[in-house]
Amino acid sequence: MISRASVVIIGGGIVGTSIAFNLAKMGVKDISIFEKSYISSGSTGRCGGGIRQQWTSPMNVRLAMRSVEIFRNFKRDVGMDIEYYQGGYLLLANTDEEVIDFENNVKMQRDEGLDVEILTPRQIVERFPFINVEDVKMGTWCPTDGHANPQIANIAYAFALKRMGVDVNTHTTVEDIYVQNNQIIGVQTSKGYLKTNVVVNAAGGFSREVGVMGGVEIPTHSERHQILVTEGVNHILDPMVISFHNNYYVRQTMHGSLVMGQSDKNPVQGIDLGHTIEFLEEMAPKMVHDFPFMKHLHIVRQWSGAYNVSPDAQPIIGESRDVSRYLFAVGFSGHGFMLAPAVGEAVAEMIVYGSSKTVDISNLSIERFKKKIKRERNVV
Ligand SMILES: Cc1cc2nc3c(=O)[nH]c(=O)nc-3n(C[C@H](O)[C@H](O)[C@H](O)COP(=O)(O)OP(=O)(O)OC[C@H]3O[C@@H](n4cnc5c(N)ncnc54)[C@H](O)[C@@H]3O)c2cc1C
What we know:
By secondary structure, this protein is an alpha+beta fold. The chain has helices spanning 14-25, 58-72, 74-78, 96-111, 121-127, 150-163, 207-213, 277-290, 336-353; strands at 7-10, 31-34, 50-51, 89-93, 117-119, 138-142, 146-147, 167-169, 174-180, 183-189, 192-195, 199-201, 221-232, 240-243, 248-252, 257-262, 299-309, 316-319, 326-330, 332-333. The chain has two domains: 7-46 and 151-220 and 312-370, FAD/NAD(P)-binding domain, CATH 3.50.50.60; 87-144 and 221-308, D-Amino Acid Oxidase, Chain A, domain 2 (2-Layer Sandwich), CATH 3.30.9. The protein has a nine-stranded mixed β-sheet with strand order 5-6-4-14-15-16-13-17-20. A six-stranded mixed β-sheet has the order 8-2-1-12-19-18, sandwiched between helices. It has a three-stranded antiparallel β-sheet with strand order 9-10-11, with no helix packed on it. The chain starts with 6 loop residues before the first strand and ends in a 27-residue tail after the last helix. The relative contact order is 0.20. Flavin-adenine dinucleotide (FAD) is lined by residues 10-16, 34-37, 41-44, 46-50, 173-174, 202-206, 210, 225, 227, 261, 305-307, 332, 334-338.
């Protein structure tokens, strides 16, 4: 651990490591990143790995589109194969309201430059004969969506950081942030004190608590989301499929196993990594109904992780008005993995140039909650 850092990043998940990677790439020296456990121990290592550009908020579409550009060259630029697969993403509409919503979303997404198609149930079956469309009214399909292995992606960034000379500290907790006259002067960690004037809160499920350390109130909360993986079978499910009405997402990994999850009806609040039999009892019948080939599949394992949720289910990214150079990139709900490459770039630009350049993310600032907000609806 170094004794003085130009930037301290709290959290070694995909968001923190992506920010550090982009800062190092831009030539910033003496960056320190702190992870209280191991790399990918947080939500990143527990997530579904979906990479989707079909959102209801233009900001999420833009960030996801930029992330896809980065994911495409991830192996070349970050140095590891992360099982990135552009098999597309199929969104299923099951109600008349969803049909209207989806049509409006597609219009906006196309305006943003996204290649996205509307499919009738018949067209869905022609392309994806393994889906039972008896309850489906229409679908939207984006061929450049896909998925990757989130754990490997997180570790790939961390390995790159070490090669680039970043001070990477695992099993080291940031315990306090010292502020004098609205300026950060240092952080206390479980392994000692470090001087710095710039802190980035990328603490995922602990974003609110890390905010409190610097005297910054961050309106996020964490809730438990469960997920499971089956045995591996021959490749069948090219796209990732999601139904908001039936409350599920599913993808097939490169090794053949199927990864799927839902939102619990009353998600447990806070950090709770337990899981329930009810989750399996709810998932199994609806998945077998929509994907009859799953009838004889064995479930191998289930687990859970935290969604860190903001009031409009969109990330909160920016700098505190009260504490100078206290930045945060938090509140990603169920879409932080897919947005992280573009978010890392944007936060690094904020630190180096004073504002984001490649994608203007100024409207994700914490100040937006003073006005009327619009909730991102395409979430499970
Ligand atoms: C079941 C599930 C499925 C999901 N599916 C998807 C999906 O398909 N696609 C997608 O894009 N997203 C998905 N997500 C969301 C995604 O996992 C998160 O949005 C993303 O991983 C957030 O990354 P992060 O780096 O902010 O958080 P994390 O990965 O949680 O990293 C934050 C890190 O900060 C560390 N930390 C906290 N406090 C301190 C401290 N004081 N000192 C040092 N370290 C600290 C934690 O230990 C943690 O490792 C899913 C999430 C879950 C739970």
